[in-house]
Structures are given as structure tokens and as C-alpha cells.
Amino acid sequence: MGDPEPCRIKHTEDTEELTELMEENEKHEELSEVERKTHTCDQCGKSFTIKGSLTSHMRIHTGEKPFTCDQCGKSFSQSASLKLHMNIHTGEKPHTCDQCGKTFLRDSNLKQHLRVHTKEKPHSCHLCGKSFSLIQSLKEHQKIHTGVREYMCFECEKTFITANGLKKHERIHTGEKPYKCSHCDKRFSRSGDLKTHERIHTGEKPYKCSHCDKRFRDLGNLKKHERIHTGIKPFTCDQCWNSFTQKGSLTLHMNIHTREKLYTCDQCGKSFTQKGSLTSHMNIHTREKLYTCESVN
């Protein structure tokens, strides 16, 4: 009998978890020399010692996903994959870094994170020399050089370098917010936004200014603050070349050139280019009301 005909394996999001599960099962199977792998896949020829492992393996080929999350409806081919997925909703991250205390959903994510502490970056870009700790990060980086954006949103046709980037973007259209705060009922479309929000409850401010003792909840605010010390003004007006430390300041400045008046008084309808001008203007109306009230008395 010849070798089984090669087949096309249907890849699913939990194929990696399935592989880990199968390896774990085989580690715990104590086989004697006379025992044989009697259960063989008729699609790819892989053999297993127990029928249950073969049944699980066959779902790679069939694409069957009998295990469904009761929170978001996502389905999985393995019960272990569903169990791991449920941690997204519960917020549980059982794997903790012994260097910095950061927690992770998967053991493989923890192992990747540890390279941050060891400074190990074995994967280098041959075009610019930039190094990465993960091969996947290198592959995604190289698309910047090639300009390849192979993932497209069917709703708005916006393209992305990575599948994960597209997935996050699509939540704008679907309104999906799978990440719920463990302290309140607020939900988020991105896990990073949830982490930043939860620091409001915990009071954690992990980002410290390298020039003073001020600390921040998120990296973006730290970078904005540090420009006070460095004097860097990365946002430049293309009309008059005036530069600003904040993007919002540039947007506000551009109203001078466009004459766009975004801020309108709800009392008299007068419009202004700057919010501060509207605030000052409102004092006219509050004073009028004050004087009217006093004259009546």
C-alpha cells in the first residue's frame, strides 16, 4: 500500500492550540514497546494511540468547530481552545512573568515576552538592519519596505499589513467590544484600551518620565509630556511651517488658515475658530442673565 495522498489541511485559528494539545496528550501516554499506534488518519496518514486523539485531529481537515463560546458566539474545534478563549472574557491570565509581573493568556506568549528582559533579538531585517525578538514581527516589519497590504476591509476597502490589524479595524464597523472592565461595565474593542482604562480603577501609572518624577497611565501621554522637556515639535503646519508639540494644537492652528469656525454659541449662534474664544464669549451671556436677574430683584 502506497503512501497516503497528500491533502490540503484546513487551517483554523485554533490549529496551534490543537497541536499543543496533541503534543501534551502524547507526553502523558506511557506506551510499552509492543503497543502500536492503531488509529490512522485517512487524510494525511498520521497515526494515534487512542481514538479520541484521532477524532480531535480530524477536525483540522473537516473544519468542524463543535465548541461555542456562550459570550460572543465564536466556535472552536477543541474544548481546550474554548477554555483558553474564555479567559479573554473573564480577564484571567494564568501565566506571569517573574521579572516584571506582567501576565499572559498563553504560556507561549510569556516565553516570547521574556525576550524583552533578555534583550534577545535574533531576527534582523536585511533591508534596514532592525532586529526583532519574534520572526513574525520581522515578517510584518518587512511589509513596510515592500508596501504589501494584503488584508482589505470589505466594508470600506481600507487595507492593512497584518490580519490582526484588519481584525481590530473591523470592530469599528461591527461595534464589537469583547473586552469588559473587571471593575465597571465599560467595554472596549481593543485589549490595550481595556488595560489603560483599568488603571483608572487601580491607580497604576507604569510609565515614568525620564526627566522628572511624573508618571502616566499610558505611553502616549508620557511621550506628549516628555516633549515639554525635549522641546521636540513633530507636528508642523504646511501653510506657515509653525510647529507644535501636540497634534491637537496643530489641528486647532489650521483653523486660522482655513477660517473654519467649529465652535458655535448656543445662545446667539456666533461661531469661533477656537474653543477658548467661545468660552470667553459665553461670559457675555452669563453677565446679561446676572444683570437681568438683579434688575428684577
Automatic annotation (TrEMBL):
Residues 11-38 form a coiled coil. The keyword Ion transport does not apply. It holds the Pfam family zf-C2H2. One of its GO terms (cellular component) is nucleus. The keyword Metal-binding applies. Its main location: nucleus. It is found in: Nucleus. It comes from Carassius auratus. May be involved in transcriptional regulation. Keywords: Coiled coil, DNA-binding, Metal-binding, Nucleus, Repeat, Transcription, Transcription regulation, Zinc, Zinc-finger. This is Gastrula zinc finger protein XlCGF7.1-like. GO terms for molecular function: DNA-binding transcription factor activity, RNA polymerase II-specific; RNA polymerase II cis-regulatory region sequence-specific DNA binding; zinc ion binding. Residues 39-66, 67-94, 95-122, 123-150, 151-178, 179-206, 207-234, 235-262, 263-290 form the C2H2-type domain. PROSITE patterns: ZINC_FINGER_C2H2_1, ZINC_FINGER_C2H2_2.
